Amino acid sequence: MDTLVCPAPNRRPLAYAGRHELPEFTPELAAEMAPLYARVQHVVTPMEWPAYAPLIKGINELKKELNAVVLAHNYMTPEIFNCVGDFRGDSLQLAREAARVEADVIVQAGVHFMAETSKLLSPEKTVLIPDPLAGCSLAASITAEDVRMLRDAYPGVPIVTYVNTSAAVKAECDITCTSSNAVKVVESLNAPRVLLIPDEYLARYVQTQTSVEIIAWKGHCEVHELFTAEDIEAMRAADPGMKVIAHPECPPDVIAAADFTGSTAAMISYVIDKRPRKVALITECSMASNVAVEAPDVEFIRPCNLCPHMKRISLENIYEALRDMKYEVTVDPVVAAKARRAVERMINLTN
């Protein structure tokens, strides 16, 4: 088994074990936490905040005591993303920040392949995932053995893997890519044909942007593949002036019907820069809440498809991961060395 997830109860000093307790939600705590609540008050209800505030306080205290940071993916719920996330963004942004930060412990508020990528780029740091079952349908759609089979079937054809894959898959590929740099990565290989795995819809989208022949794999994101062009037609019929922006993991007919297609970072930039009156983000639902914090004047229509894997991460299990130093993610050193090369080749290209 290439990747291990294990409780690491003795990683922190034993004198610290079991000593942290959550505060009660008192008027004093409410006053202390008021600036954080002001940031999220239009996406977190007053009924929710008394349950969230003690956990947020506890997490932020533990981060200081343990020299830890929380990496919060764009698909995290707003109380996680805005109130305990030290770095916020897509999976690669988070891993790159983790590699630069002077921290001993990284908590990945995201899914398992993201924690692996953080470990690849920060091998000397302890990487924790609050729920080891937080997987990804796209990452699960392909294995290292599948990639070796593709090598045999397409000898000499470079293989690009989306970062949404396991470390074992990355280790078998030539270079990684993100949804924002996939075209640049594909064209950098100077090859007439390229395998782009595992997301079929991302591959189809990239094919519309390049003359390189793209060979795809039949992997899909279970959130993005649920959207249909009929969904967009219904939204436009209800409000013809709204803008629709889609992630390239969506099916081709959805992308064709959208006003703009881009990575999560590009989608956020579109909203922040253009400030449309009303917008639908065709992606995981929580991202709209997080962008709404930065653009409170924009009305968000939410065709709500939630990622069941992302939603396994909560304030409660982030707190428990830090309190107990549990669910450490490690990668076999041989696999890690090969996977790291594929990731770093992309980073060096895009830098």
Concise description?
With 351 residues, the protein is an alpha/beta fold.
Uncertain runs: 1-17
Average of pLDDT: 92
User: What is the strand content?
Assistant: 15-25%
H/E element sequence: EHHEHEHEHEHEHEHEHEHEHEHEHEHEH
Radius of gyration: 21 Å
Q: Strand order within the widest sheet?
A: 3-2-4-5
The helicity comes to 40-55%
What does this structure look like?
With 351 residues, this protein is of the alpha/beta class. The chain contains 15 helices and 14 strands. The protein has helices spanning 27-40, 49-66, 78-83, 91-100, 112-121, 144-153, 167-171, 182-188, 200-207, 229-238, 252-257, 264-274, 286-294, 315-324, 333-350; strands at residues 3-6, 68-73, 87-89, 105-109, 126-128, 159-162, 175-177, 193-197, 213-216, 243-246, 260-261, 278-282, 299-301, 328-331. The strands form 4 sheets. It has a 4-stranded parallel beta sheet with strand order 3-2-4-5, sandwiched between helices. It has a 4-stranded parallel beta sheet with strand order 7-6-8-9. Strands 11-10-12-13 form a 4-stranded parallel beta sheet, sandwiched between helices. Strand 10 (243-246), helix 11 (252-257) and strand 11 form a beta-alpha-beta unit. Helix 1 packs across helix 2 (49-66). The longest helix has 18 residues, at 49-66. It is globular, with a radius of gyration of 21 Å. The two termini are 33 Å apart. The model is unreliable at 1-17 (pLDDT under 50).
Name some characteristics of this structure.
351 residues; alpha/beta; four-stranded parallel β-sheet; 16% strand; globular; 14 strands; 43% helix; disordered N terminus; 15 helices
